[in-house]
Every structure is written in structure tokens, then in C-alpha cells.
Amino acid sequence: MPTVAWLAALPWAASFAAIPRLARSKPSLSDVAPVTGPGVSIIIPARNESGQIETVVRSALASTYHPLEVIVVDDRSTDDTARKVAALAATDPRLRLVPGRELPRGWYGKPWACQQGADAATSEVLLFTDADTTHHPDLLAHAVSMLRESRADLLTVAPRQLVVSFWERVVMPHIWVMLGTRYHPSTVNAATRPRDVIANGQFMMFPRASYEAVGEHAAVKGEVVEDLAIAQQVVRLGKKLHFAFAYELMETRMYQNLGQLIEGWSKNLFIGSRLSFGHQPLLRFLAPLLLALDGVFWLAPPVLLCVALLGYAHAFLPAAAIATALSVLFWALISFGMQAPMWYGLLYPLGAGMFLVILARSVWRGTRRVEWRGRVYDEVTGLATEPVPPSGPARG
Predict the structure, then answer these.
(1) pLDDT tens digits, one per residue of 138-158
(2) Structural domain tally of the chain?
(3) Alpha helices in 130-257, H assignment, sequence order
(4) Is the peptide bond prior to 393 cis by the omega test (within 30 degrees of 0)?
(5) Structural domain of 303
(6) Which range (137-151, 275-289, 323-337) has the least confidence?
(7) In a domain, 392, yes or no
């Protein structure tokens, strides 16, 4: 093949430089010795989580750490989430169900649920975690150790992300490569600007004094991507954020089907990309475009290859073939790293295309229509419409 073809494919070959960064899983919670000590309150905001709430609660209660309390805030669920938690609470005094109060004007649901959980908590250390997570019995012991060792005001972790279904394995790698490249813990921990940090709402641990000092969840009450916003608030106020891996100690499966995946990332992509650039108007404006260019970058080689094979732009055939082969290999390695079959690399164009569809949906909705778990938020009024929750003893 002509040398020019290899040169044209060089940007896709350069992508492999990101592999060592993405594969590096340090710092890790597993590297610190487990401890016991101050009481920990695990706070789980839950809205319509019937299918997975028992898993996270049981895993939290199985912790080797003590003293410990688990607080589930039922965020006005319309399913039997509250009933399942109430049944578990009847068997373990460390578990409490807090029925969520009506959403106030100007608040989004998750920050409000987290705030109610914090208000009910009695411990010196607060851990906010999500209903889609599973905790290893030693997770807390290692996390409190790293919180103490790092002297952090906020400790957040990256758990192992499970991708089980077809669409998870096709789409989620594109999201995690994007996030992992920009927000690797080694970079986040050295950052001094709010735009360069992030937190994972699946695990945010604060000393209570630090949580109060940054304004609690009330400081981010109007943010859809509240974990990113609270990380920025921590750094903005001169506090310390520490980000670590927890692959051996925690796992999560964020979405279990295509509908959930589209709903979740439609909520986060546009707003999160703009929020990540803080008070830089030009970059905030361009952020969604930059995300789109990432998808176009990966789609260009196979599209051009198909065009060339159909007899058009035949001169681009060698370069397109090389770039496509390199792209397939890159995504096969990413699939392997996410514990999915490597042959999913062949389907990476489908994942890139679906990523662009979700991004377009997210941009189209913007902040004027934010929807999650049946709630629809109105940007103008600051109010949310939602189904009426069930009444009676099932809500605890």
C-alpha cells in the first residue's frame, strides 16, 4: 500500500497511545490497609429501584466495617421499592427507610434525596452511593482508610463497570473511553481547576464536617449532573478531592437495556459536557460539538471504506481500510478491558452511531426537558411533574 495511505491513517494509529492510560488502575483502594473507626452512614437515594434495591442494601449490610448505618431514601417511588426496603429493615436495625418528602421548587430529585439522607444520618462519615451498585464486604474498610490517608474532603471511586447486554457492550465503551481519557484519577487528583475534576455519584464519601463546609447537596440543588457539580464545588472552595479505583471492591451495572441507556445519557451528556467547562462560555458552547467530533472520528473510516468499495472515491480505499482495521483492533482491546468479548470491536461503528444519536437527543432536549424515572423537570418554573406516589404502609 502507498505510504500516503499509512500516513492518512496515522490519527487512528495514534489512538492506541490512550490504551496504557486507560489500563492504569492506580491509585486503588486495594492498596491501603483496611481499618475500622468512625461511624459511617451509607445513604442510598432510590427512585423506582425495585429490581436492584435489595442487592445494594444486602451488600452494604454485609460490610465488615463497623459502626455502620444504612439509610435508604425512597424518592417517592411509584413501584414497590419502599416495601422491599421496609421488609429488610424489619430484620436489621442498622437499616432505615426514609420516605422522601415532596420535591421543593428549584431542586432536582437526586440532590434532594441525598440531602434528606444526610439530614437523617448520625455518623461522622457520610457515603452517598447508588442503587445500581454492589459493595464488597471490605469496601468501606479500605475506603475509610484511604479517606484518612489522603486527608480528602471528598473521596470518590471508579468501580468495575459491568456490561452484560448487547447494547451495553456496544455503546458503553464509547462513553467510558471518553470519560476515562479526560478524567483519569491520576490527573484529577493533581488538578487545581474545577473544570478538570469529576466525582462519581455512585460513591462519594465525605467527612461530615467537609460535607457541611462545601454547602451539602443544597449547593448543587439545581444541577442535573450533581456529582460533577459537587466535585467542582469542592475544588473551587480549596478543599481536597481524591479519586481512586475500586475494581476489586465494587461493581455497578448502570443500565440494563437500551431504553434505560438512552434515557440516562440523554440526561447527562449535553448538560455534563457544558458544566465541565464552568465559566468558559466559548468552551461551554463548543463542548457538545467536541463530543460529536469524537463520534464522527470513529465513524469516518468505515463510512469512507463503504463508499470506496461501492466505486466512489476509490483512491481513499487503502487509507480507509487501514484506519478501519486499526479502529476495530482498538475497540476490541477496549471490549476486552471491560470484560466483554473482543469481537464486539467489529461492532464499534454501531456504538459510535448510537452515541451520536443519544448526543443529538441530549442536545435537542438541552435543559428545557430533563426527564428521569418518570419525572419531567421544567427549567422555567423550577418544578417537576411526576406520577402520584402510592400511599399507605408500603412507603414505610
Answers:
(1) 999 999 999 999 999 999 999
(2) 2
(3) 139-150, 166-182, 185-188, 208-213, 226-236
(4) no
(5) 3-18+279-385
(6) 275-289
(7) no
